[in-house]
Design brief:
Helix content: 25-40%
Largest sheet: 7 strands, mixed
Number of strands: 22
């Protein structure tokens, strides 16, 4: 049996799946990663542990599989997280600075104060926010030991370095597009952006297509040396591809620690009003573009609230929330500021409009509803800016399997959402790209016909405006300006 081994390296877990040439998931494996918070607002991971978790996930996946001939390896990965390592020895020269990390907030504010926002956004499609890696790369360089041959890269480039025994320093266009160092128009690293952030672009990886030749494996247990790595792509982009969202207006929402809302574009459209434009994927040297809205904290607030309420798990929290009527207290999960479309690093998490009659169930409902409200805000901006109709909207990630949560999303955006039974949308998308590169599947139309199990959730008729007014009030309270000495 021919198969593709797809790795999905996420913020909290690394996963691996084997995908048959019929598009079926043969087996699965996963391993936890670990995450550290060394200072308030700082979030980082150990690059060695990230690669070790990938190896553990692959080992578990292969143990669970019947005999299979692995044709290729594919990678999807957490984005906007970057690290540095020694080009000669492969020794990490710093942590993986997470996409969630806010340590460069003051640097971003400084550039905004210098009037650089329009320049950076015009080149990259991204705002000046600490989520994005420009200044994180500078932070790593400032702390790298002198005299070392430094390599800088996104997580896909680090994994490819490890998987190829250090032979390749490459990444794909979708990850490059999230690095804040990539010129979307020219599709290459930008000297101008290097000057803005103080980063030598010669240290960055070569940018390849998302479906391309990324080298061959060496030393990956259970996988023959010389197995080609034929795809690499950011996890949100991979999910969009995996769903078959190839038509303009089609989109997806990936729910996880944070959430990513993406819709496919007919061409490059410059971003406005708090969303970004990004390379969805690049095939045959031709980029496809998408709008994206990055929500910094989504499902991450659920276990936090479950623990506060003394509930055993997230399932119990959602069950409790479902017993409460909507339009109770407001909740804004701005634990690390707010992402799209607000982009406010100084926003603070809060509950609003609590009184003596507020119940535990209402508190739970306010936290679950915040997931849907954030998606609504992003989708509203995308609809307004694209000028087109929203097409098929897929949902993936763990929370997407909960019908109560997804019904709330459908109700607020007044549009059906399509639940997908397979939880590995990102890994599947990467596998499809690898298969496309190998000729296992001939074109996008063929990939679009591969089996997918879905369920459509249609919106219910509800009184939306009072709910949205309550949410807007909570957002306004969360984003009140702080005194300068309290804004870090």
């Amino acid at each position: 049996m021919r198969s593709i081994l797809a790795i999905d390296q996420g913020t909290t877990n690394s996963k691996a799946i084997l995908v048959s040439e019929q598009g079926h998931v043969i087996s699965r494996g996963s391993a936890s990663v670990g995450i550290a918070y060394p200072q308030p607002g700082w979030v980082e991971q150990d690059p060695r542990r990230i690669y070790a978790s990938v190896c553990e996930a692959v080992e578990a996946c292969l143990k669970a599989s019947p005999p299979s001939a692995i044709e290729a390896v594919a990678i999807s990965n957490q984005r906007e997280s970057v690290t540095a390592w020694d080009a000669a020895t492969g020794e990490p020269l710093g942590p993986v600075i997470s996409w969630q990390c806010r340590r460069t907030a003051s640097d971003c504010r400084r550039l905004i104060g210098e009037g650089r926002l329009d320049q950076v956004q015009a080149l990259t499609g991204l705002p000046l926010d600490p989520m994005f890696p420009g200044f994180k790369l500078r932070w790593l360089l400032d702390r790298a030991p002198s005299g070392r041959a430094v390599r800088l890269g996104t997580v896909d480039s680090w994994l490819i370095h490890c998987l190829t025994g250090g032979r390749k320093h490459v990444c794909d266009a979708s990850n490059a597009a999230r690095s804040q160092m990539f010129d979307l128009g020219r599709q290459n690293w930008s000297e101008e952006l290097g000057d803005v952030f103080g980063v030598d672009i010669a240290l960055l990886p070569q940018v390849l297509d998302s479906s391309d030749n990324f080298g061959v494996t060496q030393g990956l247990m259970g996988v023959p040396d010389g197995t080609p790595i034929r795809a690499a792509i950011g996890d949100s982009h991979a999910a969009l591809f995996g769903h078959g969202a190839y038509e303009p207006g089609d989109g997806k929402v990936t729910f996880g620690t944070g959430s990513s809302v993406m819709t496919t574009l007919p061409r490059f459209i410059a971003p406005r009003n708090g969303i970004t434009t990004t390379v969805a994927w690049r095939i045959g040297g031709r980029p496809s573009f998408a709008f994206e809205g990055n929500i910094l904290v989504s499902a991450a607030s659920l276990p936090w609230m479950a623990a506060i309420l003394g509930l055993p798990d997230v399932a119990a929290l959602v069950e409790l929330a479902a017993t409460a009527e909507p339009n109770g207290p407001g909740f804004v999960p701005a634990f690390v500021g707010l992402g799209a479309p607000h982009w406010n690093s100084d926003a603070r998490a809060l509950f609003s409009q609590i009184n003596f009659s507020t119940t535990r169930a209402q508190m739970a409902r306010s936290v679950t509803d915040a997931i849907a409200f954030q998606v609504h805000d992003v989708v509203a901006v995308m609809r307004e800016q694209s000028g087109g109709e929203l097409g098929a909207l897929y949902v993936d990630g763990g929370p997407s399997q909960n019908s109560f949560l997804m019904q709330s999303v459908a109700n607020l955006i007044e549009h059906p959402v399509i639940q997908c039974e397979a939880p590995e949308a990102s890994a599947l998308g990467a596998a499809y790209l690898a298969g496309l590169s190998l000729g296992l599947w001939s074109d996008l139309e063929t990939i679009g016909r591969l089996p997918r199990s879905t369920r459509v959730i249609t919106p219910e008729a509800i009184e939306r405006q009072p709910l949205l007014n309550n949410w807007k009030d909570a957002i306004a309270r969360s984003t009140l300006a702080l005194p300068p000495d309290k804004a870090e």
